[in-house]
Amino acid sequence: MLRPKRQSSSTITVTAPIGGWNAVTQLAAMSPNEAVVIDNWFCLPTELQVRKGYTEWATGYNGNIQSFINYSPASGTIKFFAAADNNGDCALYDVSSQNISVIDLVTESGDFITTEAGVLLDTNKAATVYGLTNAKFRFAQFANSGGHFTIAINDTDPLLLYDGTTWHSVTSTSTPYAITGVDTSSLNDVILHKRRVWFAEQNTLNGWYLDTDAISGTAHKFDFGPLFSQGGSIAKLTTWTLDAGWGMDDYLVVLTTKGEVAVYKGVNPADSTDWSLQGVYYIGSPVGFFPTCKYGGDALLLNKDGLIPLSQCLMSSRVSTRISITNKIQAKVTQATSDYADNYGWQVILFPPQNMLMINVPTSDTTSDQYVMNTISGAWSRFVDVNATTWTFINEEMYFCKSGGVYKFWDGQNDNGSVVTTDLLPAFSSFGTQSQIKRWSMARVSMGYDVSFSFSAQLSLDFDLVSQPPQPYNTLSSTAGVWDVGVWDNAIYGGTIVPFARWQMASGMGHYGSYRIKTSSKTSDIRYYATDYVLEAGGVL
């Protein structure tokens, strides 16, 4: 008599989804090394790491900080400034030092500056520049024989020039620096290209440039209007490095609000034999106040098609989203740019020491997410709960601002004293038997940590994206076990990152499964390596 074949359980290991966030592939076709949800994890080439936190740098400023301005000379003191908006009363603060910014505000004659009520301004957190009407600045740094300078513009106030000691308001009649030919309060962008300072004039297609190596003097107009058939105004100026066959060369790139791009080659715009138009292209309207970022020799542009390398944009009249850097998360990018396109805070920024590229996504006036890519692997994840308005990278460190304060990022394991909580849902897997129903009985998460953390986990079946584990409750401590005394597979043995692996009940039946994990900690560097499953394959249902 034939006896029914007894089903046997098998153990299957699924490694960490180092391929990162996938928001475009069908759930049933997703690669095992990808994730459906990956919040507050950073994808390393071999494992996942819980993002680090941030610490208070300088707080207590009036208003919301909306932009940074950097000053990074080749030698000398590095400085950076924060521009805050207090209901239209804007000011610029020196935030170069942690917690303290001691600045004596005096007039040119040496008199201390007071408020309209005659009150001496607080020198502990006094504004370097006050009485501004706009806190949304763009800036460029420039060096010549006279020193190192930072030029900052905000399209409403006169241009600001910093010489390493003093901020100067620059107009057509100011001293010791003046710019004639254009109203400097009408400028909305500034870059350095081929030893010339270039400006864009707000609400126009006019560019302006200074003489070679000049930081003041006559501004010369260059009308880009005849190039662009769709009108609009200049949204951003940037540079693009290209190997044209005889070595690397920098090109000037003009991006309009309607999504058209003009590329120019040359040094002197007044010399037609030297200055030449390379092409005009359409790539889609840019998103945000800071839609570009230098990326090696290339330039990245953020529009509704995603984050696109300029070199790819110019290959066709409209770039395919498949070659965008954000192609794996394009559905999320498109949704975000549709829902939040008008919010201030969009920004693309590099964090080189951590091999990190970030898109700041402002979900409201006070909240934001960060879509984060590992520049080595190209894997994406999402950071939540940081709620940054704007970012800056200076002196090999990353800073952001929110709620009237400046914070240092990737510093410590908590968010200024609050826990960092994660959520991870790896890709659903059929474990090689798509048509067979399976019964799970146990799961074991392999992780590493150095101090302590809490976690919870739950088996998710057949593309259930709604059910979640409870708030992390299992607390683990790195107190070292004693060899031959500690309990195997439970005790922890010494090391910087100690291992954790423990079997847990994970019962359920379905065709596809994934183990959703949440963690929380204020102190620990947490890593995720793999999950082992014990399951039994049944019949075809």
Compact overview of the structure:
With 541 residues, the protein is mainly beta. The chain has 2 domains: 10-52 and 422-540, Jelly Rolls (Sandwich); 54-418, YVTN repeat-like/Quinoprotein amine dehydrogenase (Methylamine Dehydrogenase, Chain H, 7 Propeller).
Helix content: under 10%
CATH architecture of the largest domain: 7 Propeller
Number of helices: 2
The N- and C-terminal alpha carbons lie at a distance of: 26 Å
Predict the CATH topology of the largest domain.
Answer: Methylamine Dehydrogenase, Chain H
Give average pLDDT, whole number: 88
Please write the CATH class name of the largest domain.
Mainly Beta
Major sheet details: 6 strands, antiparallel
Say which CATH homologous superfamily of the largest domain is assigned. Answer: YVTN repeat-like/Quinoprotein amine dehydrogenase
| pLDDT < 50 stretches | 100-107, 112-124, 480-495
Instruction: Provide the domain count.
Output: 2
Give the structural class: mainly beta
CA-based gyration radius: 27 Å
Number of DSSP strand runs: 41
Shape: elongated
Strand content: over 45%
Top keywords for this entry?
Methylamine Dehydrogenase, Chain H; 2 helices; 3% helix; Jelly Rolls; 47% strand; 2 domains; 541 residues; mainly beta; 41 strands; six-stranded antiparallel beta sheet
Question: How would the blueprint of this fold be written?
Answer:
Elements: E1 10-15, E2 20-21, E3 34-39, E4 41-43, E5 48-50, E6 54-58, E7 64-71, E8 79-86, E9 89-94, E10 129-132, E11 138-144, E12 147-153, E13 159-162, E14 167-170, E15 179-180, E16 187-193, E17 196-201, E18 206-209, E19 217-218, E20 220-223, E21 234-243, E22 248-256, E23 260-265, E24 276-282, E25 292-295, E26 298-303, E27 306-309, H1 310-313, H2 330-340, E28 347-351, E29 356-362, E30 368-374, E31 380-383, E32 390-394, E33 397-402, E34 405-409, E35 420-426, E36 436-449, E37 452-461, E38 474-477, E39 498-510, E40 513-521, E41 527-540
Parallel strand pairs: 2-3, 15-19
Antiparallel strand pairs: 1-41, 3-35, 4-5, 5-41, 6-34, 7-8, 8-9, 9-10, 11-12, 12-13, 13-14, 16-17, 17-18, 18-20, 21-22, 22-23, 23-24, 25-26, 26-27, 28-29, 29-30, 30-31, 32-33, 33-34, 35-40, 36-39, 36-41, 37-38, 37-40
